[in-house]
Design a protein that fits this description.
This protein is α/β, with parallel strands linked by helices. The protein contains 12 helices and 8 strands. The structure holds NADPH dihydro-nicotinamide-adenine-dinucleotide phosphate and isatin.
Length: about 325
């Protein structure tokens, strides 16, 4: 079975996009902790370059990761033409990660094009909707921000626009605005935390997004394998349903547990964004297009996963 999630998601040169190579999470964190550490910067560039080399054509970055320069260097180092790659970045309101530089989407775009050394980005997302008017100099609410995102898209330097961490009421707000702007200005992606332990980041969000032609992207797809911790003690929870099931499925399909989780997400018509600091894992993660989980096993992961609801990101916002 070919999972073709992305018929309309093609790089400028016409290639369908693959799963995404992340550049946030610990890359962003380590860079923030030590922004001038050349070893850290070079490691990010090397791992992104390696990702491109083994077949990822989709790079995920964001203002708050501060990894635009590394993405740019990796593209150059890979020797792959810009048009054969898809770059997603995200605009952030608030300042709980970095001191914000860009006061508006237009300022963000100008800055991003320079940092990425490109004349366009493929996808611009609003990083999250958890902001109040007083969090920005320009007093943004979701509607005002979306209107400016559309204006920025009209400059021609942004191919597609979308959102991240949006629930159904917020999606409805932006869709309503897009209706009066034309089809090319609709949100095309909602990037959310998605895995077997969080099959809906907020009520009905996956079904609503998909029914409205919005591709759901999954961040945290490996959560059941890598970050199931007790909220209070922060200690790893050692016994949970997939901890038992994943090794069985990995043996059955002759794949790693991570590959089972990524393939599961793909078969739910959701596009994973993943990251690793280890080349072997980066390569394995893209090698999920040549096998298929049976529908019974997808259903089993669904049902075992729903016995253990678990949220790893934005715990206070939902
Ligand atoms: N829009 C948003 O709000 C958010 C977006 N994101 C985006 O999504 C990307 C991916 O995020 P993240 O949630 O961290 O991704 P994943 O769920 O893929 O988790 C990545 C972690 O899993 C580990 N890992 C990777 N492969 C394996 C493996 N085969 N076996 C065991 N452990 C493995 C990695 O550690 P190791 O390096 O040791 O392999 C890494 O710490 C981010 O980089 C960012 O681009 C992320 C969070 C929020
Ligand atoms: O990559 C990311 N890691 C995060 C952790 C918390 C909130 C947002 C993010 C990202 O976008």
């Amino acid at each position: 079975m070919t999972v073709d999630l992305t018929p309309s998601f093609k790089t400028k040169s016409g290639d369908p996009i693959t799963i995404g190579a992340g550049s946030g999470s610990k890359w962003g964190r380590s860079k923030r902790g030590d922004p001038s550490n050349e070893a850290v910067l070079n490691e990010i560039v090397d791992k992104l370059t390696y990702s491109i080399k083994v077949g990822y054509n989709h790079l995920d970055t964001a203002e708050i990761y501060t990894t635009h320069p590394e993405v740019s260097k990796a593209i150059k180092k890979s020797g792959v033409e810009r048009e054969k790659l898809w770059i997603t970045t995200k605009y952030f309101i608030g300042s709980f990660f970095i001191d914000k530089k860009a006061e508006s989407p237009q300022e963000f775009l100008d800055q991003t094009l320079k940092e990425l050394n490109t004349d366009y980005i493929d996808l611009l997302l609003i990083h999250h909707p958890f902001f109040e008017k007083e969090h920005s100099k320009n007093q943004y609410d979701v509607e005002k921000l979306w209107k400016e995102i559309i204006e920025v898209q009209k400059t021609g330097a942004v191919r597609y626009i979308g959102v991240s961490n949006f629930d159904v009421p917020n999606l409805k707000k932006v869709i309503e605005i897009s209706k009066s702007e034309g089809k090319e200005h609709f949100p095309v992606v909602n990037q959310i935390e998605y895995h077997a332990y969080l099959q809906n980041q907020s009520p009905d969000v996956v079904q609503f997004s998909q029914e409205n032609g919005i591709l759901v992207e999954s961040y945290g797809p490996l959560t059941p394998l890598v970050r199931v911790v007790d909220d209070e003690t922060k200690e790893e929870i050692v016994d949970h349903p997939l901890k038992r099931l994943l090794p069985e499925l990995a043996t059955k399909y002759g794949r790693t547990e991570a590959q089972i989780l990524l393939r599961y997400v793909l078969q739910k018509n959701v596009l994973p964004i993943t990251i690793s600091s280890k080349e072997e894992r980066i390569k394995q993660a893209i090698e999920i297009y040549d096998f298929e989980l049976s529908q019974a096993d997808v259903d089993l992961i669904d049902s075992e996963g729903s016995k253990f609801p678990y949220r790893a990101f934005f715990k206070d916002q939902f």
